[in-house]
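User: Could you check the structure of this?
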Amino acid sequence: MRARATLRASVESGNNWDDPSEDHLFMLVEDIERGDESYLIVERLSDSSGQSYIQTMRNEEGGFLVERRDGAPDKHFQTTASDFRHAHALIAAWAFGEPEVATPSEWLPVRFVG
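Assistant: Sure, the predicted structure tokens are below.
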């Protein structure tokens, strides 16, 4: 019997993968770099609210915008990555519980005006 998935990666084209490896996440971010996809979302499936995720897309300056949310609106942060390798490092650190690649001061709160 297969264990329940803990992560799900999704891209613009509609493809998704359960429990992607760090190497697979690298290839998915690389797809954004090449222009084959415009975004990547990695969700933590253990959060029943569906609000624990990290996502990335290219920004206007040619780098990457990376956002993460850890369950609640007050735990929604963003930072920029200079290139796809840095974006991948941030995503992998979040996905696999590694020490943060970006310092806390680099993660800025996301505030929506509604």
